[in-house]
Amino acid sequence: MKKQMRLTILLTLVSALLLTGILPAAAAGEEFTRRFNAAASPVGAAIVYDLTDDVVLYTKNGSKHIRVASITKVLNACTAAQFLKANDPITVGSELSLMYWNSSTAPVYRGERYTFEQLLHAMLLPSGCDAAYALAAAAGRKAAGDSSLSAQAALNSFAKEMNKFLKKLGCTDSHFVNPDGQDADGQYTTCMDYIKVLRYAVEHPLISKVIRKAEYECIDLNGKYHYFYTTNMMLGGGYPGAIGIKTGTTSLAGYCVATAAQRNGKTMISLVVNAPSHYSRYSVSTDLLDTAFAYRLKGDVNYDNHITAEDARLALRLSVGLESASVYPPQYADMDGDGRVSPGDARTILRVSVGLE
After folding, report:
1. In Å, what is the CA distance from 206 to each residue of 28, 80, 114, 135?
2. Same domain, 290 and 301
3. Cα-Cα-Cα-Cα dihedral sign, residues 297, 302, 304, 307
4. Which tens digits make up the pLDDT trace of 173-230?
């Protein structure tokens, strides 16, 4: 009788709190923080972002100045897309002479003519710095409203637009001076800033279509056949659910990779910077994303990424056998770690939901 009375009182309290609509802020639990830290331990900086719920799940050195090497080409694509449409024609020109001597190439050559969409593939799949310079020159002239600009003036115009675009996204601690990510003085960003660029790319209709491809073939506007394939081993089955994004490597940036993936209705984006080896950037990214997709707060019984009075109600029903453990895994309701769900656990969840614990 007393047990039924206690259950009635608790359920009444839970129901009353449900009506208030109180939702707590989510934060990584100790278990997941430990798993994220272990996964990111080999790299200089990293971030994991839950695009679906618009929340950063984890950062390592998130506000530290970093270089992102050829992942800069994602920013190039996003900026160029402000001025160019998919079918706009672009002629590769003398801007190629301004590339760094050791740059990776698609390759594309001076005098070849492509659409904007074709050059996006040449830049983002094989990491063509030549395509990056061609796109930057075309977009820089379009931004300046002057098709006669020299190659250098066009690139300078584009660099200004890149930094204007960063500010538009809310990136307050970033600055770029070249269109392809080669190491240069005055070129830097942070994980917290650059994740905004990656999010924009994943949500952009044209760019998102390009970054998810492992290979691409086309006939350019001069009638020549081209085949481009990605440098990103997370694509093409390398990571289940991968939908992009881009690799990068320079001597100062180290080995880098930005990855977006979808599973079970969730989209996650990770950025790994300054990994010690070619393969370690992929293993770290894999571990971070696996942890992100498994992420769940203790007390989030119904797995909606919030701890609410509804979770407390479900925990209470679990404690008296009114809910199935196969539907609501009891480990997320067992707040005291004693191996069972009790009314005390429900009370703890209720207190957490209103900020008392």
Report:
1. 33, 12, 16, 15
2. no
3. negative
4. 999 999 999 999 999 999 999 999 999 999 999 999 999 999 999 999 999 999 999 9
The last residue of a domain, from among 294, 317, 335: 294
Same domain flag for 214 and 312:
no
Joined tokens for residue 173: 């601690």
- Rounded CA separation 148/90 (Å): 14
Q: Is 222 left (phi over 0), alpha (psi -120 to 50) or beta?
A: alpha
d(CA 54, CA 203): 13
- Locate 69 and state its tokens: 């090497």
Is pTM beyond 0.90? Reply is no
Phi-psi category of 151—alpha, beta or left, where left has phi over 0 and alpha has psi -120 to 50?
Answer: alpha
Segments in the chain forming alpha helices (H): 2-20, 30-40, 72-80, 116-124, 129-144, 151-169, 191-203, 205-211, 280-294, 309-319, 343-353
Q: Measure the CA angle with vertex 97, ends 94 and 98; round to 5°.
A: 110
First vs last C-alpha separation in the chain:
30
DSSP letter, residue 25: P
- What is the span of the domain harbouring residue 114? 32-294
Q: What is the dihedral sign for C-alpha 207, 213, 216, 218?
A: negative
Domain count along the chain: 2
Phi and psi dihedrals of 242, rounded to 5?
-65, 135
Average pLDDT of 322-344? 80
pLDDT tens string 88-100: 999 999 999 999 9
- Which structure tokens are listed for 189? 């960003």
Question: What amino acid occupies position 144?
Answer: A
Cβ(183)–Cβ(252) below 8 Å? yes
Of the residues 294, 321, 339, the one at which a domain ends: 294
Q: Which amino acid is at 167?
A: K
106 and 228 co-located in one domain = yes
The CATH number of whichever domain residue 60 belongs to comes to 3.40.710.10
Instruction: Note whether 186 and 237 are same-domain residues.
Output: yes
Q: What distance in Å separates the CA atoms of residue 266 and residue 146, rounded to the nearest whole number?
A: 43
Q: What's CA 239's distance to the chain center, in Å?
A: 15
Which is nearest to 228 in space by CA: 218, 211, 216?
A: 216
